[in-house]
Amino acid sequence: MEGVLAYVTAFAGNFAPRGWALCQGQIMAISQNTALFSLLGTTYGGNGQTTFALPDLRGRTVVGAGQGPGLSQYSLGELAGSETTTMTVATMPSHGHTATIKIVPGANTTADATTPANGVYASPAAGEQLFGPGGSVNMKPYPGTLTTGLNAGGPIPFSTLHPVLALNYLICLQGVFPARN
User: Fold this and answer.
1) What CATH number did the domain enclosing 45 receive?
2) Which of the chain's ends, N or C, has fewer CB atoms near its CB within 10 Å?
3) Contact 74, 123 (CB under 8 A)
4) Enclosing H/E stretch for 35
5) Strands, E, within the chain: which ranges?
């Protein structure tokens, strides 16, 4: 299988053909792979004196190096991302919740009752007012209850992985040396 030196491609087989290697971060000897080292350098690892590394694409998705309009900058060989993340109250974006509250009278007696049931506001009869015009009568506040959503769960990691299909990535070790334009 002839290829261009340092070319990376997906391969559905479970082995690397002759002249190719799986992209699994292997450490390579510079002395035995000088042409490939001249293309990769230590971008993916190695000491640069006697060794260099192949890209390690196990469990990784490839992204183009550089920066597109409105996108993040990625340098050649840069690792980024995570399969899981943990959201906590501190990392949650600022937001609010709304609630609709409906006060319903707690007694079925009429407004003119001297001792309304449960000691709370009574339901006025049709055409009657709930409050007296003089304002000299003290009434207890309505003992309503508001239930809001409480924090549920906790800081447990959750997956951020998009659907994937695992294939092997290969890199060409022996092939045509690419000419620069």
Assistant:
1) 3.90.1340.10
2) C
3) no
4) helix 34-40
5) 8-11, 20-22, 27-29, 51-53, 84-85, 158-159, 168-172
Q: How far apart are the first and last CA of the chain?
A: 25
Q: Does residue 143 lie within any of the structural domains? A: no
For the whole prediction, is pTM greater than 0.85? no
Contact predicate 31/47, CB 8 Å = no
Which backbone phi and psi does 51 adopt, to 5 degrees? Answer: -135, 160
Q: Which residue has the tokens 């959201």?
A: 87
Structure tokens that stand for 1 in this block: 């299988």
Examine residue 147 and state whether it is found in any structural domain, yes or no. Answer: no
Residue 33 lies in a domain: yes
Q: How many domains does the chain have?
A: 1
73-96 pLDDT, tens digit each:
999 999 999 888 888 888 888 877
39: left (phi over 0), alpha (psi -120 to 50) or beta: alpha
151 part of a folded domain: no
Could you tell me the residue range of the domain that residue 44 belongs to?
Answer: 1-56+167-181
